[in-house]
Write a structure and sequence with these properties.
mainly alpha; three-stranded antiparallel sheet; 6 helices; 3 strands; 8% strand
């Protein structure tokens, strides 16, 4: 995330170098500059940001840190994540250890889309 926007770097090295150069010369801004200045795109919605975090972190060996989610988004969202992940936990496709949910190596990753979809459903219903 840069300035609360999802940023995907270009895939090829030549495109990446050009992209970095454009970012650094665009209005004198730097890629790592976090100031809120005038941008054409609105900031990313909090729920979209959370869903992006869930999507990316659950697919890592470190898993999803629920304490950090609670700190950044609040307890109701942690409850939604836990409720959405419950079937994966019950089937042994995911584990919860020390306030972290992670997928189990082979089977959990195979079913990751189903588990993540269940979590997204629950997060959309958090009030």
């Amino acid at each position: 995330f840069v300035r609360n926007q999802i940023v995907a770097r270009p895939r090829t090295m030549v495109d990446y170098i050009n992209w970095v150069h454009e970012q650094q010369t665009d209005k004198g801004a730097r890629v790592d500059d976090d100031k809120d200045d005038d941008h054409d795109e609105p900031p990313i919605d909090q729920i979209d940001r959370l869903m992006d975090i869930v999507l990316k972190r659950l697919r890592t060996c470190q898993g999803l840190d629920l304490a950090r989610i609670k700190e950044q988004f609040g307890e109701p969202f942690v409850d939604g994540i836990e409720k959405g992940a419950q079937l994966g936990l019950d089937l042994g496709l995911a584990v919860k250890e020390n306030e972290t949910i992670r997928l189990v190596d082979s089977k959990g990753l195979l079913y990751s889309n189903s588990i993540i979809s269940s979590i997204f459903f629950e997060l959309e219903n958090v009030k």
